[in-house]
Specification:
The complex is a heterodimer of chains A (185) and B (123). Chain A is mainly α and 185 residues long. Chain A contains 11 helices and no strands. The termini of chain A are far apart. Chain B is mainly alpha-helical. Chain B contains 5 helices and 2 strands. Chain B has a two-stranded antiparallel sheet. The chains are: A mainly alpha (185), B mainly alpha (123). At the A-B interface, α2, α3, α7, α8 and α9 of A face α1, α2 and α3 of B.
Chain lengths: 185, 123
């Protein structure tokens, strides 16, 4: 349930009032960028898609019915922008190839995730995440990185919450398998 | 990778994996991104009641014109129907006059001249 100020804020956003929209943008742009950075593994692409996400959000702000939270709605737009980008597989392939090379240049190509990949454990985790199937990867990012509930994920992915929950569970098991197999002799 | 780390991987449980995923370091946000995002925020002119009307007037006018057209067509139809009905002769009993119309057994129409029958007794 939303309180009165939250409802008022959503109403202002839906009416396209600048202050409310600015506040919402400040509040959510980092999360959207992080989401897209994890999905694309590319700083400039994530930045472009983040901008496109917000431009699309403002253009379609009247279609936002406030059934889901504004963050969930933005995630849904960002997810569709990512799908539309059509460059996902190439980026993933390039990223994984880069990680395997383990050269200093790799760090430069992983600009937004530089800190993440500089830590050995995080790097392994990140690499394993990108070995997952695309839909598994997305569920892991949405749930564990972005902190969305299964119901919110269901809205983003347009699938039943039960299906999303099951997929997330399967993705986690697969991720564990990847990590376990990696360390076994 | 040290032996310690290997042991840690082997002892990996789903719960610890979940915790590790939640603890992943934050990504670096480009410094210019916020300015770019804020620049895309609408100026608010399209947001007020005037903006609503400006955006909706074609739709509102379209609905108005369609409604008016339906009403006008309805009125024209009603007027034509009224004219048609007023121009029709009043319905009278077909058997009022000297000619009598009856249906035969085969549903064909027989015409009898009642005057002739009455005077001559023949058809």
């Amino acid at each position: 349930m939303r309180n009165r100020s939250e409802r008022r804020n959503l109403k202002d956003i839906r009416q396209g009032q600048r202050e409310a929209c600015e506040q919402a943008a400040r509040q959510h742009y980092k999360a959207i960028y992080r989401f897209l950075a994890y999905l694309t593994g590319d700083a400039s692409l994530a930045e472009d898609l983040t901008q496109e996400t917000f431009v699309a959000a403002w253009a379609n702000i009247r279609r936002y019915r406030a059934r889901a939270s504004f963050a969930t709605w933005l995630h849904k737009i960002a997810y569709h922008k990512f799908i539309d980008s059509g460059r996902r597989l190439q980026r993933h392939a390039a990223l994984i190839a880069g990680l395997k090379q383990d050269s200093p240049d790799v760090q430069e190509t992983l600009d937004p995730l530089h800190q993440l990949t500089s830590d050995e454990h995080s790097r392994l985790l990140y690499e394993a995440m990108h070995r997952l199937e695309p839909f598994e990867h997305i569920t892991i990012v949405l749930h564990y990185i972005q902190g969305l509930s299964f119901r919110e994920m269901a809205r983003v992915l347009d699938e039943p919450a039960g299906t999303v929950k099951w997929r997330t569970s399967q993705a986690l098991k697969r991720l564990k398998e990847f990590l376990t197999n990696r360390v076994q002799p | 990778m040290t032996t310690n780390q290997e042991q840690k991987r082997q002892d990996l449980t789903l719960k610890s994996l979940e915790a590790d995923l939640r603890r992943l370091p934050e990504v670096q946000i480009p410094e210019t991104l916020q300015a770019k995002i804020l620049a895309s925020v609408p100026d608010g002119k399209a947001g007020g009641p005037q903006g609503n009307w400006v955006r909706r007037w074609p739709r509102v006018c379209g609905i108005g014109i369609a409604t008016a057209a339906v009403l006008i067509l309805g009125l024209v139809f009603m007027a034509n129907y009224a004219l048609f009905m007023s121009s029709q002769p009043p319905v009278t009993d077909l058997n009022d006059g000297p000619t009598r119309y009856v249906l035969s057994d085969q549903n064909s129409l027989l015409i009898e001249d009642t005057n002739h029958v009455n005077s001559g007794g023949q058809r």
